[in-house]
Specification:
heterodimer; A: mainly alpha; about 55% helix; B: mainly alpha; membrane (chain B); ubiquinone (chain B); mitochondrion inner membrane (chain B)
């Protein structure tokens, strides 16, 4: 015999609770985050290039100052070396003090220092 | 079997203390270390531009150190003049900036805060601005960016 009030309805519907955002939402979200990251990366690369240029120009502005100082020092030591050479070679007739061994008027850095 | 033999050449370092010949006018060397020079670099470039360019054009003519001694003295005197003016007018900001550079591997981008103060002071007192030549299509100045990507972690 059926129970009083009849049988309860048969549960045939599937029980599928919502499980977070859908595939397209996740795909779109990842794409958006990556796009923002690459945008920042590009901006950062441009900025890094500018920072490098700033550094290079700072050095360019200092080149004449440092070169002038170095030139004075080189000139001072060269003059002293020529004086020493004059003293050492004073008994050799026909010796030209400080003459380059190359027949070239272009300036050449001295590679030998006479002590 | 090997045995130590003294080389024929001396390995002692040689310091030549002979002063400059007397016919060359004397000029004091600048004597500033790298961080103050780096801090002042753009102002030296702005303030001493004619002397610097004159010197570099002279060096372009002839690389002989004897050829450009006069122009070199002018460059050095100009830099000394500027550094003295900076010390007289903006010493506090100047010192803050170069000490920041000393602490931060001499990177400009890590020292923007003291740099802005120094730039403002230099413009106010001496009328000098830091301008990086070139600067892309818009002539952008990287030291004036309000929200840079590369910056110090700690504010």
């Amino acid at each position: 015999m059926p129970p009083a009030g009849g049988f309860e309805p048969i549960k045939y519907k599937r029980n599928l609770p919502t499980r977070g955002p859908g595939a397209y939402v996740i795909l779109g979200g990842v794409t958006a985050i990556c796009a923002f990251g690459f945008y920042r990366l590009g901006k950062g690369n441009l900025e890094k290039r500018e920072l490098e240029r700033e550094k290079v120009w700072a050095r360019i502005h200092l080149v004449p100052l440092l070169m002038a100082e170095g030139d004075r020092d080189t000139y001072r030591r060269r003059a002293a070396a020529v004086e020493r050479e004059r003293e050492i070679m004073k008994n050799v007739p026909g010796w030209q003090v400080g003459k380059s061994v190359y027949s070239n008027p272009k300036y050449e850095q001295t590679s030998i220092v006479v002590l | 079997m090997s045995r130590f033999q003294a080389g024929s050449l001396s390995t002692k370092s040689v310091v030549d203390l002979t002063p400059l010949p007397a016919d060359i006018p004397k000029v004091e060397e600048v004597g500033a270390t790298s961080a103050p020079l780096k801090s002042a670099a753009f102002f030296i470039g702005a303030y001493c531009k004619p002397y610097n360019e004159d010197f570099m054009l002279c060096k372009n003519e002839n690389r002989d150190p004897a050829h450009c001694l006069k122009e070199g003295r002018r460059v050095t005197r100009c830099a000394q003049d500027l550094l003295t003016k900076m010390q007289q007018n903006c010493m506090e900001q100047f010192a803050a900036h170069y000490e920041c550079l000393e602490r931060n591997n001499q990177e400009y981008y890590l020292c923007r805060k003291p740099e802005r103060k120094l730039n403002a002071c230099m413009f106010e007192k001496l009328g000098l601005t830091k301008t990086i030549p070139g600067g892309g299509s818009q002539g952008q100045q990287v030291h004036e960016l309000s929200n840079p990507i590369y910056k110090a972690m700690q504010k």
